[in-house]
Design goal:
alpha/beta; five-stranded parallel beta sheet; 39% helix; 295 residues
């Protein structure tokens, strides 16, 4: 590997990176363990003309570890809108540029969205180079349902706004996933426990690192465990969704249906009870016909 031949090395063995087609390459990087990077990601980073980094100092640890020499430019929340047009123009002129965040998959609570939107509007190519993600890593070890989940990133810093955001999610049935800083983890768990004390949850810390751990329990138990405690590194909080509401008692809604039928046409009575109890209309209609036949 020479200055003019892009490449990378793994455990002392050098590899040449194949050339890239023009476009922006959104590259996932390790969230802790440097070995959690794909060969395709290494090839892409080595061959890119420029690597856009959330923080060039943070990215240096990974890039230097694999001997990647590509030019690095900072792209973060404070300058990404100003730099978007220039990057779009470079790609339109034939450049292959990589985008990475400090860790994990870019754009998930990290910079990059304005740039991707600008490229999409300019009809310029964007490629995903998948890999590590704290969101998915925490979700699969939490022991909570994964068939439907919603990612909400970081909650607001201020207590009032945080409480409002959580209350808006109280009826959500899917598993909820949040990121949180070590400084606010105790306050956030306390706020969640106030609203949803008995819900099962998990807190994932130091994922993929030597001291990786997952704490599971009710939100009340987790709030007590982390009270006045500051952890190291960002946490992922996974919370069970709201339980399905209990089915209304058949005797209750059928009694109300009978009363409604005494004062209203059958169809109107069916509609009123269906809406009141959140039932399927056919179920209520069939019950109405049966009650009518009994008279």
């Amino acid at each position: 590997m020479t200055e003019t031949t892009p490449g990378y090395f793994i455990a002392g063995t050098t590899f040449t990176a194949p050339p890239l087609a023009p476009g922006l390459y959104v590259v996932a990087t390790p969230i802790g363990n440097l070995r959690d990077i794909t060969i395709r990601a290494l090839e892409t980073l080595a061959a890119a003309s420029v690597i856009l980094c959330e923080d060039t100092r943070m990215s240096a640890r990974l890039l230097d570890h694999y001997g990647i020499k590509a030019r690095r430019i900072a792209l973060h929340e404070h300058n990404e809108r100003a730099k978007a047009d220039d990057i779009v123009n470079r790609i339109a002129a034939g450049a292959a540029i990589a985008l990475i965040s400090d860790a994990g998959t870019p754009l998930l609570s990290d910079p990059g969205f304005p740039l991707i939107r600008a490229l999409a509007e300019a009809n310029q190519p964007v490629f995903a180079i998948p890999g590590a993600s704290a969101l998915l890593s925490a979700l699969v070890v939490a022991g909570l349902p994964t068939d439907a989940f919603a990612f909400h990133g970081f909650l607001p810093n201020k207590a009032g706004a945080r409480g409002n955001a959580l209350r808006a999610l109280s009826d959500s049935r899917e598993t909820l996933v949040f990121y949180e800083s070590p400084r606010r983890l105790d306050d956030t768990l306390a706020a969640m426990a106030t609203l949803w004390p008995g819900r099962q949850a998990a807190v994932a810390l130091e994922l993929t690192k030597r001291f990786e751990r997952v704490h599971r329990g009710t939100l009340t138990e987790l709030a007590q465990e982390f009270a006045d405690t500051e952890t190291k590194g960002e946490a992922v909080i996974i919370v069970a969704g709201a339980a399905e509401p209990a089915a209304p008692d058949a005797a209750d809604w059928q009694a109300d249906l009978l009363k409604a039928m005494a004062d209203q046409p059958l169809r109107a009575a069916v509609d009123a009870v269906t809406e009141q109890y959140g039932l399927k209309r056919k179920e209520v209609y069939d019950a109405a016909l049966a009650l009518k036949a009994e008279k």
